[in-house]
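Form P-L/3: holo structure prediction, ligand guanosine-5'-diphosphate.
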Amino acid sequence: MSGKNCFEILEKIFQPKKQEKIEDIKGYTIKYGHIMEKETVIDEVLVSYFKEPMSYTTENMCEINSHGGNIVMKNILELCLKYGAQLAEPGEFTKRAFLNGRIDLTQAESVIDVIHAKSEKEAQAGIKQLEGGLSEEISKIKQEILDVMVNIEVAIDYPEYDVEDVTNQEIMHMLDSVETKLEKLEKSFDNGKILKEGIKTAIIGKPNAGKSSLLNRILKEDRAIVTEFEGTTRDTIEEYININGIPLKLIDTAGIRNAKDAVEKIGIQKSKEIAKNADLIIAIFDASKQLSNEDKEILEIIKGKKVIILLNKIDLKQKLHKEDADFKEVTTSIMEISALNNIGIDEVYKEITKLFEINEINIDNDLVITNIRHKNLIHQARQSIQKTKNTIKEKMPIDIVAVYIKEILEELGNITGEFVTEDIINEIFSKFCLGK
Ligand code: GDP
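OUTPUT (holo model):
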C-alpha cells in the first residue's frame, strides 16, 4: 500500500509481535506479526515500512509479505480494501513515483522494459535508462540550447544592443551540435529495436533438409534459453533464443515441428510468406543430395535478403559445396555444417553476430534508445532543428527563430515528461502490470 493513510489501514489489520507506535517505527524496517480479521489469524507475515519521502512512490508505504497462495492473498487484499484502501491501477506505483517527481518519464518507462526484458543486453539497456542515462543526455542537450536561448532573449528584449549577428552564428553552431547528438541517439534505435524485439529469424528449407535438427541443436545449447512469450494474438507463442545475449525471435517454429505430421512439408508459398517477414533467413540445404527444383525455388525466394545459407549433413558424402555458384550468387554467408554431429554450429552463431554488427552494440558505453515514443520525439526535434535553420537562413526576425527553438525544447521535454499531457501519461502507464 502507498499513500497518506496506508499505516492507518495497516494498523487495523496487522498485529505486530511487538507493539510500537507508528511514529516510532523507522523507515526501511521489517516487523513480524499477524494479519488478523477480528480474532481470526489470516496469516503470519512480515511487513516492511517505508516512510515518506524515502520510498518507491515517495509516499508512506508498507509491503505485506505473506506466505502467498491465492486464498490468503485474496483475504489480505480484501481486508485492506475493507478498511479504505483502493485497488491500484496498472503501473500506479510507478506513476506516482513519476507524478511525485522522484523519477522522470523515461525512467518510469524503463521499468516496463526491465520487467519484460528477454535478453541480458536488453535488461542492461533498461537498467541504464532506469538510472537516468537518457534523461541525463537529453537534459545536457537542452542545457546547450538554453545557454543560447538566453542570448536570444537578450537580443529580443534589448534590440538597441544589436547583438543579432553574433547570435545567429551562435545559434547555427548550437543547432549543428545538437543535431549531431540527436542523430546519434535516433540511430541507436535500430540496435535498440533488435535488443527489444529480437531479430525475426526464419529457418527455411525443403522437407528433410534438417530444419528441426538445427533447431533442436540450437535449443540444446546452454546459451540458447527458450523463453515463451504470449504473442499479440492469444494463441501464438513467440519463441526466443539467445545468441550471445541477443534475442532471436523464431518465426513459425511450430510449422517446423509439425511438418512431420499430416502434410509432410511446408509449401513454397508458406516459405515465401515466412521469408517476407523475417529480418534474417537461415536457409538450409541437404548437402548430401543434388539441388532439387524445390531448393532452387528457395534460392530464388531468398535472393536480396539478409540470409545465411547452411549446407547440412556434411558428415555424409557431400554433393553441394560452399563454392558452388548457386549459393555464391545469393550471399557470402555460406557455411557447411552437420546439425546431427554438431559441426559448424558455433560458426553460425558468429556469423549472425557479425551480420547484425551485434558486437558493435556497446551497452556499457553507448546509450541505446529502445522506445518508439522516444525515437519519434527525437525525430520531431530534428525536424524542428531543420525548420529553425531555415528561418535563420531566410533571415527571419529573431523572435520567430526563438519560437522554433522553443518547439525543439518542448519536444525534448516531452521525452522526459516535463510537458507531457495526461492522455499520454495514462497510455504509457496502462501498459504496466498490476502492482508495479
Ligand atoms: P526437416 O524436415 O527439415 O525438419 O529435417 P529434419 O531435421 O527432420 O531431418 C531430416 C532427417 O535428416 C532426419 O532423419 C535427421 O536425423 C537427418 N539429419 C539432419 N541433420 C543431419 C546431419 O547433419 N547429418 C546426417 N547424416 N543426417 C542429418
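COMMENT: The first strand starts at residue 14 and ends at 16.
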